[in-house]
Specification:
It is a single chain. 42% of the residues lie in helices and 18% in strands. The chain is built from four helices and four strands. The protein has helices spanning 3-17, 66-79, 84-99, 122-139; strands at 30-36, 41-49, 55-63, 146-147. The chain has a four-stranded mixed beta sheet, with helices on one face. A hairpin with a 4-residue loop joins strand 1 and strand 2. It is globular, with a radius of gyration of 14 Å. Bound molecules: zinc ion. Zinc ion binds next to helix 2.
Length: 149
Amino acid sequence: MDELHRLYQEVILDHNRHPRNCHRLDTASCQADGFNPLCGDKLTLFLSIDDDNIIQQASFIGEGCAISTASASLMTDYLKGKTIDDAHTMFDLFHRALTTHETGVDKQLGKLAVLTGVREFPTRVKCATLAWHTLRSALANKTETACTE
Ligand code: ZN
């Protein structure tokens, strides 16, 4: 494993051990549930969005593997202060980075790039994208559970 990937793994383990924004949000303006049957990862995402479409708060609760927990932790950190448009744009970039080998996308991911290593493990890609599918479902104000299948 090279130095960069070792660093990435450290960050993932740290976010798994100490997930950021891991709590309910009583002031949430929308929320959604997500489930990845392949691994058993479950999460509920909470968002508080103001009248200017800016995400003021983002949090999650749930149970899942290290990748899914770290991804939800990193994503909720990223979302704070972003617009809904930013969130959709990042969903597309993140999804592309993990499911294709387009080089150049990784650089646009910022801190979220630590998760790009999972593209080498196709069965774990859904663990990493679960939080993002749930985000999309929360933004669409859907009531059904977002499923990675
Ligand atoms: Zn998982």
